[in-house]
TrEMBL record:
Pfam families: ABC_tran (PF00005). One of its GO terms (cellular component) is membrane protein complex. The keyword Nucleotide-binding applies. PANTHER family: ABC TRANSPORTER ABCH.1 (PTHR24220:SF86), IMPORT ATP-BINDING PROTEIN (PTHR24220). It comes from Cohnella phaseoli. GO terms for molecular function: ATP binding; ATP hydrolysis activity; transmembrane transporter activity. This is Putative ABC transport system ATP-binding protein. Residues 5-245 form the ABC transporter domain. The lineage of its organism: Bacteria, Bacillati, Bacillota, Bacilli, Bacillales. Keywords: ATP-binding, Nucleotide-binding, Transport.
Length: 255
């Protein structure tokens, strides 16, 4: 599989903030291949979110380059970057940013209506298909106040997928969920990855990372280690062994 996303010598320092002048990213090099499922781990403040936002064009790095689908996006204008994010990238966050005065269904389809790449009929049927696969079809007409945290995160995933992105970025996508619901959300993300969508997420949770294929470890703004677990295979039922392998590895890195 080819490279989808590549960072070269990516550095970022924030102009102001608690660590004035300190580099949040230090010459990070990373290649994300099409179809990969990656977790970024590391201590608090090590630069995981900064990496995710710099890779996705949500924020600009101070130096270095980001290439997406063979095109260098670091020099894109804000407008072009926002079009790229709308059309080719999906985002899932810890805190679910759904609009209060819209139904779950309308929240899911809104960005696709704006992107205008497909007819509303196609978008609606895609939204229903994703809602069915995510187990929330019966909530389509409900307001977001009528759904649980796990159901809202499923809706947020459907929303992230609605424009059929090439990559989905997740910043602690299970961070606000209990562990059973977090496991279900990860199984859903694994299915999405199985069907070809590349996924890169940031997590503190070993159980979450153990369901991904490659785990990167960040320390003080640098990617210092990685572990390949390979794709999760449901029939193998080796979830516990993967978690143990990862726990041992993280302990050896001091986390
Ligand atoms: N908007 C900002 N302005 C100034 N400094 C920032 C900003 N965002 C992050 N930082 C600093 O950059 C460094 C990396 O932060 P970042 O949020 O990327 O780490 P993280 O590994 O995602 O942390 P956590 O696990 O706690 O979310 C930290 O020192 C942080 O204080």
């Amino acid at each position: 599989m080819g490279v989808l996303l590549e960072a070269k010598e990516l550095s970022k320092s924030y102009a102001s903030g608690p660590n004035d002048g300190q580099q949040a990213l230090k010459k990070v090099n990373l290649q994300v291949r099409k179809g990969e499922f990656i977790a970024v781990m590391g201590p608090s403040g090590s630069g995981k979110s900064t990496l995710l936002y710099s890779l996705s064009g949500m924020d600009r790095a101070s130096s270095g380059s980001v290439t997406f689908g063979g095109e260098e996006i670091s020099s894109y204008s804000e407008k072009r970057l926002s079009e790229l994010r709308l059309e080719k990238m999906g985002f899932i966050f810890q805190h679910i940013h759904l609009l209060k005065n819209l139904t779950l269904f309308d929240n899911i389809v809104l960005s696709a209506y704006l992107a205008k790449r497909s007819s509303r009929k196609e978008i609606n049927s895609r939204a229903l298909e994703y809602m069915r696969k995510s187990g929330i079809a019966e909530l389509a007409g409900k307001n977001i106040t009528q759904a649980s945290g796990g159901q809202l995160q499923r809706a947020a995933i459907c929303r992230a997928l609605i424009n059929q992105p090439e990559i989905v970025f997740g910043d602690e996508p299970t961070g606000a969920l209990n562990s059973k619901t977090a496991g279900e959300i990860m199984d859903l993300l694994a299915d999405i990855n199985e069907s070809g969508t590349t996924i890169l997420l940031v997590t503190h949770d070993v159980k979450v990372a153990a369901k991904t294929e490659r785990i990167l470890f960040m320390l003080d703004g640098s990617l210092v280690a990685e572990r390949r677990l390979g794709k999760l295979k449901k029939e193998k039922q080796d979830g516990r062994a993967r978690e143990e392998e990862l726990t041992g590895w993280l302990a050896s890195l001091g986390l």
